[in-house]
Fold:
Amino acid sequence: MRSKQLKRNKKTGIMGQGSGSKRQWSVVSGRCLVFLFLLVTGHWSLVTAYSYAMPWSWDMFTQPSHKAQENKPPDMPEGTVSNRGKELHTKERSNAATIQKPIAPSYESLARGKIMYDTYCAICHGESGHGDGTVGKKYVPPTDLSTDYVQRKPDGDIYYTITYGGLAIMPVYGDAIIPEDRWHLVNYIKHVIGVSERNKQAPK
Structure:
């Protein structure tokens, strides 16, 4: 009986060990399959990502592009008349000096000139034109508009400077201020800033 029991226990132990090994193998093989699945799917996702990206990912880099103002603007239609005043197309300051001012220094012109001056000029030249504006104090002081150097200039010369900029510092304003308002500015510089300065210097 004992020998039979030992044989049965031995046989049972061997069978138990065998089933345990099978369970361990199934667990390991299952993990391997999961790892293999993840590896394959991950690799495939990378492959598909690259397949979708290349070479099409370079399209935005190599596409035709145009810089601002690169193309020539359309020509002005023949017979077109501007409602903002006739522009003076001259590139020579000497020619601009001979231009006659088309707008008289009326009250309306001086009032419009003040609006333009406060908008575009006072930030550098200052409220009174002495070059003591906010920007003028911080950087290179601009020209004092109340001096004889400016006040004795022809009206066309000042108009030219507003249109095409100064000799060194003043930027171009021809693209920001219409011709009519430039003449209002000329009147304001000559008949408000200049007159105010002359009144200050006049003997009392």
